Amino acid sequence: MNLPNKLTVLRMILIVPFVVFLLLGRGEGWMKWAALAVFCIASLTDMLDGKIARKYNLITDFGKFMDPLADKLLVCSALICLVDLGRLPTWICIIIIAREFVISGFRLVASDNGIVIAASWWGKTKTVSQMAMVILMICNFDIPWVQMLTTVVMYAACALTVISLVDYIAKNKKVLASQK
Prior knowledge:
Layout: H1 3-24, H2 29-55, H3 61-84, H4 90-112, H5 121-139, H6 144-171, H7 173-177
Helix pairs in contact: 1-2, 1-3, 2-3, 2-5, 3-4, 3-5, 4-6, 5-6
């Protein structure tokens, strides 16, 4: 259990206080800010664990499996909470979660065929846009220009989610072709 893997486990553990703070406080008051702080810390562990693992050659099978899972659990938990709070349209949540299931399945099939699918620029950009969307929606500022920015980021995150899905499939058609 090296440092990157510990950070991945920490990210998964942080989901619990994040959800508790956000939902018990109904996205308001000090609990909103506590939820935001926990989400930001968890998001930073995502960036750190990968950088540390690559820099010090600490890449493990556990990390390859659990890191993307931890990311998906964090983002999906946040999206579901935001739907519950009425801040995120359900259809956007469904598109984002569906993409995660499709890519996870796609990667599983690829792995069974000895193919490793690396994260793409589109996938990384999608993740950053989704995290920015979550942060803005947690803050929920009642300022018109911030609300407009939140809406723009939400649609951009949704578009990047679809684009990254199409990109993954287009670049890895051989995975589907191997299933005949």
